[in-house]
Amino acid sequence: MTTATTQERRTTGLILAAGAGTRLGRGPKALLPFRGRPLVEAVAAALLDGGCRDVVVVLGAGAAQVVAAAKLDGCQVVTNPDWESGMGSSFLLGLATADPADDVMVALVDQPGLTSETVRRLLDAHRPGRVTAAAYRRADSGDVGPAAPVGSVTPAGSATPGRAATPHRGHPLLIDSSLRAAVAETVTGDAGARGFLRSHPELVDEVDCSDQSTGEDIDTPDQLRLLE
Fold it and tell me: Which terminal Cβ of the chain has fewer Cβ within 10 Å, N or C?
C-alpha cells in the first residue's frame, strides 16, 4: 500500500533508451517486441502504474522510428543528439528534463522484468536524502543459504551473518531530489550514476525485488529469452 509520505513526494521516471542495440543487431532496444507492444511502452507503463507521476524517455539511435512505432502518450520524449558518447549524456539530459523538484527513478529500456510492484516497493521504501535501488538474487550468482525476506531494505554493502550474499544491485534506481546535482557532477561516459554510488555507499539503500524478476538486462542474443 502506498504511504502518505510517498503520496506527498513526487517522482519522475526516467527511461534510458538511446542505445543502438548493436550487439543484438535488431535495431533500437526500445522497439523489441514484448507482450504485444514495443518494450519501451511496457517499461513506461510499469513506471506510471507503479506511482511515478511523469516519465521522461530519452531516445537517440533510431529516435524517429521509435516515436513513430511506440505509443508514449503521457511521457516526455526527448532525443539525445550526443547519444553515441555513452549513457552518461542521456542520463544528464533526462535529469535536466525532469521537474527539478522531483525525485528521479532511473530505469533501463532493456529490462523487461521491471514491474509496477518493483516501482511501488522502491517508492514506499525511499527515505529523503538517499538513493534507493532494486536488488536481485540470481540463480547463477552462487548465493547460498537462506535469503532475507524479499522486499527487505538493506544498506548497500551490508550482509547478514548466516544468510546468502547480499543481492546484486540493479535498476530501477531512485535518486532523491536533494542528490540530483551531486550525482550529475560525477557522470562521465557510459557510467551514469555508478561513480556516485561507489563514492557514497552510505547513502544507498537496496530493496530486494527478487520475487519480481532477475533484474537482467538484454545485452546479448541469448538474453532475448527474457522477452518470452
Answer: N
pTM of the model: 0.87
How far is residue 130's CA from residue 115's CA, in Å, rounded to a whole number?
22
- % of residues, the chain, pLDDT over 70: 83
CB 15 within 8 A of CB 43: yes
Class of domain 4-227: alpha beta
CA angle 167-148-130, nearest 5°? 60
User: Are the beta carbons of 148 and 211 closer than 8 angstroms?
Assistant: no
Beta strands at 54-59 and 75-79: parallel, antiparallel or unpaired: parallel
Identity of the amino acid at 32: L
Mean pLDDT of 179-191: 93
Find the angle CA(187)-CA(27)-CA(215) to the nearest 5 degrees: 55
- 553515441: which residue's cell? 84
Per-residue confidence at 112, pLDDT binned at 50, 70, 90?
very high
- Chain position carrying cell 562521465: 188
**What are the structural domain ranges in the chain?**
4-227
